[in-house]
Design brief:
single chain, mainly alpha, Cytochrome C Oxidase, Chain A, two-stranded antiparallel ribbon, about 70% helix, copper, heme, iron, transmembrane
Length: about 475
């Protein structure tokens, strides 16, 4: 059935999903350019606007706030309608949220290359844009919770629990971390100083990952994985354990970024302990999602959308194993400030978040436009293998580079002098930085195949029969 034929507000969802797709491609293209600049510095073109320091926050903001937030807003507004069996709380408010968020992204696109930045990780935008973000986020919260309040069923589906947590926690930590004293129209200074600023920043920075890139994506997947698998959630009780485990422990783990720093030792230890505890709820949730897919093993063998979801779950397991591992002091001593951390972040960002988003695009966009099948199952299959080759090359290259340079930085001679210079460490990792660029390029190539496939799917007036090899449901 064409979902546009019912009483739900679908048009704004379409706009969010299209915006997310555009920002996914744009943000990751910028990421590949940055990877190329690290290997070929001449690609900075001696320009103050096109150099790594200006483009890097544009890449992270484009991916996190453009790709991820748009897809989470779009899917959450769709899921909350379907699971609450009612239309959105206010249709006009939904369009205010959409256009307000796109204005935020446009201002980021203009201001970051011009050098207007707070220099805070994942919080680089200056105070006037921050105020706009808060306003739009409040409107989004009113829209989401207002829809839940008018629901026609008593039960609140588990996906909405995760969306609610991501909305509330992101609002709280964003406001606290971005408290600042304006010095001019586009310059401000944090109200915190020194170690306090670092603690608050990584309370925000790690939980931006924990609740945007983890809790929000989990909420999205708890709806779409059962849909794609044509099976119910394997264990509803386990999903609630997953939720409370993340909410209870994730918010405390951010200070593992500050090990071997000047922050108090007990604060560092809280981050370490909470990171280790997170193994349990993270893997419990991954097991739940994996078993949901495995309930339909026959379809899983041939359906590449299901396989994208399954791959995302495996990378979620990897990232949530590696994160606590890097929080242990001995491993952190080697990994801190090395390429290993970048490899860890991107195995999660590309493997978990990226493949979840790709799976949702492939499943959801045809449904939003009333199509029953993809234009080309063959392109979907090519994309699957390009994405996997890209993530694997990217992560492995940075694991090798990071561990190698970490060991070189720590190596000492008999009298305590460093055995390797900084230049020698850079020369060691140079070929691995090229492999990183190559892996990222493969991943982005797959995104272009997806855009071609989905564009032709939406514009094709007639439906075609898809072979079992394509596995499109």
């Amino acid at each position: 059935m064409d979902i546009t034929a019912n009483h739900y507000d679908i048009k704004v969802v379409r706009y969010f999903i299209l915006a997310s797709l555009i920002w996914a491609v744009a943000g990751m293209v910028i990421g590949v350019i940055l990877a190329a600049q690290l290997y070929w510095p001449v690609l900075n073109f001696n320009s103050e606007y096109f150099q790594f320091g200006r483009l890097r926050p544009l890449h992270t903001s484009g991916v996190i706030y453009g790709f991820v937030v748009n897809i989470l807003m779009g899917t959450s507004l769709y899921i909350v309608q379907r699971t609450c069996q009612c239309a959105l709380f206010n249709k006009s408010l939904s369009w205010m949220v959409f256009w307000g968020w796109q204005l935020v992204l446009l201002l980021a696109l203009i201001s970051l290359p011009l050098g207007y930045t707070t220099s805070k990780e994942y919080a680089e935008l200056e105070w006037p844009i921050d105020l706009l973000i808060v306003l739009v986020w409040v409107l989004y919260g009113v829209l989401f919770f207002g829809t839940i309040a008018k629901r026609k069923v008593e039960h609140i589906f588990v996906a909405n629990w995760f969306f609610a947590a991501f909305i509330i926690v992101i609002a709280m930590i964003f406001v606290v971390n971005n408290l600042a004293m304006p010095a001019s129209f586009m310059k401000s200074y944090s109200v915190y100083a020194g170690a306090q600023d670092a603690i608050v920043q990584w309370w925000w920075g790690h939980n931006a990952v924990g609740f945007l890139l983890t809790a929000g994506v989990i909420g999205m997947n708890y709806y779409f994985i059962p849909k794609v698998a044509d099976r119910p959630i394997y264990s509803y009780r386990l999903s609630i354990i997953h939720f409370w485990g993340l909410v209870g422990f994730y918010t405390w783990a951010g200070t593992h970024h500050l090990i071997y720093s000047s922050v108090p030792l007990w604060v560092q230890n809280i981050g370490i302990v909470m990171s280790l505890i997170l193994w349990l709820p993270s893997w419990a949730g991954a097991f739940n999602s994996a078993m949901t897919l495995l309930q339909n093993k026959q379809k899983l063998k041939t359906d590449y959308i299901m396989l994208f979801f399954f791959s995302a779950i495996l990378y979620y397991c990897l990232a949530t194993f590696e994160g606590p591992l890097l929080a242990i002091r001995w491993f952190n001593m080697i990994a801190h400030n090395s390429e290993w951390v970048i490899g860890h972040v991107h195995s999660g960002a590309l493997g978990w978040v990226g493949m979840s988003g790709i799976a949702v695009f492939y499943y959801f966009i045809p449904k939003l436009w009333g199509k029953n099948e993809l234009w080309s199952p063959r392109l979907l299959k090519w994309h699957f293998w390009l994405a996997h080759a890209g993530v694997a090359l990217y992560a492995i290259a940075l694991w090798v580079a990071g561990i190698g340079e970490g060991v070189m930085w720590l190596a000492q001679g008999d009298n305590g002098e460093l055995q390797y210079s900084f230049v020698e460490a850079m020369n060691f990792k140079a070929p691995w930085l090229f492999l990183r660029f190559f892996g990222g390029a493969l991943f982005v190539l797959g995104l272009f195949l997806m855009v071609l496939n989905l564009y032709n799917t939406v514009r094709t007036p007639l439906t075609r029969r898809v072979s079992s090899e394509g596995g499109v449901s």
